[in-house]
Amino acid sequence: MQYDIAKSLEILERTPSVLTSLLSGIDDEWIMNNEGPDTFSPYDVVGHLLHGEKTDWTARIKRILDHGTSKSFDSFDRFAMYEESKGKTMQQLLNEFENIRKQNMIWFKSLDLQQIDYDKKGLHPKLGEVTLRNLLATWVVHDLTHIAQITRVMAKQYKTEIGPWVEFFRILNF
Amino acid sequence: MQYDIAKSLEILERTPSVLTSLLSGIDDEWIMNNEGPDTFSPYDVVGHLLHGEKTDWTARIKRILDHGTSKSFDSFDRFAMYEESKGKTMQQLLNEFENIRKQNMIWFKSLDLQQIDYDKKGLHPKLGEVTLRNLLATWVVHDLTHIAQITRVMAKQYKTEIGPWVEFFRILNF
Predict the structure, then answer these.
(1) H or E element in which residue A37 lies
(2) How confident is the model at residue A168 (pLDDT cuts 50, 70, 90)?
(3) How far is CA A15 from CA A146, B147, B150, in A?
(4) Burial of A95: CB neighbours in 10 Å, binned 0-12, 13-18, 19+
């Protein structure tokens, strides 16, 4: 599947409602447990998505448009949410994410990018040269894979309770 | 996390709205592509969930309550949806799934199961003895892991488009 801006916005615009459907009002046991030491709980993942929305995706788009490869992206702190989410409920994180994603979509559309813009290059501090198209596709993939992660983490909470069925669920061993 | 009926219903009851948020009205490229030969597309997965809802979960619950281990479960056809979904749109499948899941939840609550019931045993044709608790926990895990699968399959469609970022997404290689 080739990168297509309309098809990408279809995903980015619906992620807040997917997360809300999945996580709003649910028991803490589903959202505060993780997959073991140094792994994210669903609560952590939503905080991580929120932090990216505030500090990362739009900043990197701007960096490419303003500076090309002459100034590399700032590093993204993948663990910032451990501090930032403190004291917030899941519902607060979901609401904040929904609001800022909506603003970011409005901002993004206002850029009115043309086909030629997607080939513009930026510099990732670890990966080197990337295109704006790569960055925008990664925004989509990042949403989708974190939804996959959340549901996998939730499923794992019942790994023992399913008894003999565990052998049919390869995904629980990831 | 121990099996708890209220916490399980929290998942089972929200799965239709999660699937609708994720898949309703989206471009066919996101829902008709799969992970390669002999794998499911998101469209296939929803058909598979619908088939299970019609033929499998409630029938197996009844079998345990009516026959214990004296009569094993019927086998579940994991590929029945290839025939059953023919000619149906994703929206039709989503609507059917929402309706039948709702009916199944009403039926399930009407059973008014007691703690002692969850230890009742049934006979799985391949796995041997399983408890009603195992079966009910598996219903939840089956929902969650298939949502994980759908979002992983969707993410993989952009595996090439993300360029160098692919190395940060272990999940795309599953």
Answers:
(1) none
(2) very high
(3) 10, 13, 14
(4) middle
Letter string b/e over residues B55-84, b meaning 16 or more CB atoms within 10 A of that residue's CB: ebbbebbebbeeeeeeebbeebeeebbeeb
Q: What is the pLDDT of residue A31?
A: 97
Contacts of B108 (CB under 8 A, 6+ apart): B9, B58, B61
User: What residues does A124 pair with on adjacent strands?
Assistant: A128
Contacts of A131 in chain B (CB under 8 A): 163
Q: Could you tell me the two tokens for A33?
A: 């447990």
Task: Identify the closest residue of chain A to B148 by CA–CA distance.
Answer: A148
Query: In this complex, which of B131, B141, B165 lies closest to A138 when CB atoms are compared?
Result: B165
Cβ-Cβ contacts under 8 Å, A75 against chain B: none
Specify the pTM: 0.97
Q: Is B130 helix (H, G, I), strand (E, B) or coil?
A: strand
Chain A nearest-CA residue for B19? A18
Question: Does residue A61 contact residue A135 with C-beta atoms inside 8 Å?
Answer: yes
Give the pLDDT mean for B120-145. 98
The string of pLDDT tens digits covering residues A58-76 is 999 999 999 999 999 999 8
Contact residues on chain A for B33, CB-CB shorter than 8 A: 1
With CB atoms and an 8 Å threshold, state whether A21 touches B26. no
By 3-state DSSP, what share of chain A in percent is helix, strand and coil, each rounded to 5?
Answer: 65, 5, 30
CB contact under 8 A, A127 and B167: yes
Give the separation between CA A95 and CA A1, rounded to whole angstroms.
31
CA-CA-CA-CA torsion for B46, B47, B49, B54, nearest 10 degrees? 140
- B51's tokens: 């088939």
* Whether B131 contacts B115, CB under 8 Å: no
The ipTM of this complex is 0.96
Mean pLDDT score, B102-110: 98
